[in-house]
Amino acid sequence: MKFYNFNMIYFNPNPLKKSTGDCIIRAICAVTNMSWKDAFMLLAARALSMCDMPSSNEVWMSVVEDLGFTKYSTCCQTVQEFCDDHPIGTFILGTGSHVIAVIDGDYYDSWDSGTRMPIVYFKKGEE
Hints:
Layout: E1 7-10, H1 23-32, H2 36-50, H3 57-66, E2 69-73, H4 79-85, E3 90-94, E4 99-103, E5 106-109, E6 120-124
Parallel strand pairs: 1-5
Antiparallel strand pairs: 2-6, 3-4, 3-6, 4-5
Helix pairs in contact: 1-2, 2-3
């Protein structure tokens, strides 16, 4: 049995504490210290320019790349395992239907998404 050195940190910057459909906004807030409303407006403006929804993978991934993150593929490990393997750094993980922020081995979310399996991740400051 492997011991995972991670912590799930409850994080919900939504001003009304809603937690439905705004996971990419929460993740952007966690990794940038941006307010929920500013992150929402950033995504909404990009979505409008792309004629798509703010939560679409194409929209949010382009925003994250513009924030200085580099995209990588991953498979076959949970969010918990990813945290164990990446104890240092700032990341955004995408599962295809959910987005999670990871900072120095801790994952930030409004619910425990540690058993989810990311298919892509973005690392801050890589080229």
